[in-house]
Amino acid sequence: MTRLTDLTMAxxxxxxxxxxxxxxxxxxAHVKAMEAARGLNAYITExxxxxxxxxxxxxxxxxxxxxxAMEGLPVAIKDLFCxxxxxxxxxxxxxxxxxxxxxxxxxxxxxKAGAVSLGKTNLxxxxxxxxxxxxxxxxxxxxxxxxxxxxxxxxxxSSGGSAAAVAARIALGATGTDTGGSIRQxxxxxxxxxxxxxxxxxxxxxxxxxxxxxxxxxxxxRTVRDAAIMLGAMAGHDPKDSTSAPMAVPDFEAALTGDIRxxxxxxxxxxxxxxxxDEIAKVxxxxxxxxKAAGAEPVEISLPHTKYALxxxxxxAPAEASSNLARYxxxxxxxxxxxxxxxxxxxxxxxxxxxxxxxxxxxIGTYVLSAGYYDAYYAKAQKVRALIAEDFRKAYETVxxxxxxxxxxxxxxxxxxxxxxxTMYLNDVFTVPTSLAGLPGLSLPAGLNAExxxxxxxxxxxxxxxxxxxxxxxxxxxxxGFTARPAGVEG
Length: 491
Ligand code: GLN
Description:
Blueprint: H1 9-17, H2 23-36, E1 43-46, H3 48-63, E2 74-78, H4 105-112, E3 116-121, H5 160-167, E4 173-178, H6 184-190, E5 193-196, E6 216-221, H7 224-234, E7 264-268, H8 278-293, E8 297-301, H9 309-324, H10 342-353, H11 356-369, H12 374-395, E9 401-405, H13 421-425, H14 432-437, E10 441-448, E11 454-461, H15 466-480
Helix pairs in contact: 2-3, 5-6, 7-15, 9-11, 9-12
The protein binds glutamine.
Residues 127-130, 158, 178-182, 210, 317, 428 line the site of glutamine.
């Protein structure tokens, strides 16, 4: 039999339903694997006792015939979601000992669906980054390595701990959050599936805020079907978040019909910038061929404002971050460093509590929002954002879904790109336009590069049309037949 930790969520769900094993057994297997893989630093806080307690309660519910959609399935929660009674740090020193008295809606939805929580996964501090190297709790190591080369690689970011945990089989799935690519880019770097749903599909309540008009929660899993199952459990209208959409949650799994005949797939010409690596271009071509073979029709489209997306994002996101992070002042919760006056206490607390990338974002954010520069930067960025959204709206008059690469490279070495923020920000070049437009975007593993590292392809959908995105992804997943796994993770 397949090892319990190697099952997909759908397989585990079926095995539990048939009584082949219990949630306690499944959870114990994951707890053991999680402890053996501590070298990855994927978790900031492990909660094995709580997990086993939840697993016992789950087995009990199943006996009574009360199984939910995620009944008994052990998952990991990005440490950006507040969890009642369990430390929530946002990977920042300023929250290093913060234990929330409440549960985020998304993690609560998962628990209510019967899921078991193994613990809280590592991330870039306040979800700012593309490498998971800015965490106060240290970087995460990608379980994948270049062929014949043992040097450690980054898992991507900011949801790097979640991606590494799922790839390393120390969680069946994990929650991520995506502001400009933080679900999709680490999913691509770790050879897993990740979907950022439409802005408003999942509640943001109880999730530590980075950039409120962009932040979205989503699932990170090993298969498209698992993403459909987990997204269904996470999503839904929440009266506590005024930006969550009052829409019914479709049965995402039912959308995986395997039939994409006649669908029009947009191939944006602007996503082929000069210098795009051959291996990325090749995997993209391959993706187009798979879609054609399945009866879909590729159509070249133009998204003319794409070239401004990165600059726009790096104005809007820091602006919102600078405002959101103003609440960390040492008064009511989190770190406090005393000073001679109230002002000095604020300054010392923030100076010591925030890492340098977070400080950089606060500086950029306050600058672009300052009286003298607001119109030149922030107001202008908002206008460009509207144009980017309009590009997509026009494209969706002729196509049903869009296919692009997820990231401009495969996973890079730990420590690389750290001294040059612009190079680091370029990781997001293919993911930020979707975020600015609020659209659903999914990354799936499409192949390996010459060094044996996974490469991802991104599917972008119409607003609230995650179903088409998942349906197409499912077909591509079957065509790709991606069975590779990180060295050391046996089947
Ligand atoms: N890498 C991007 C950033 O640093 C996106 C992060 C995210 O999506 N949370 O802002």
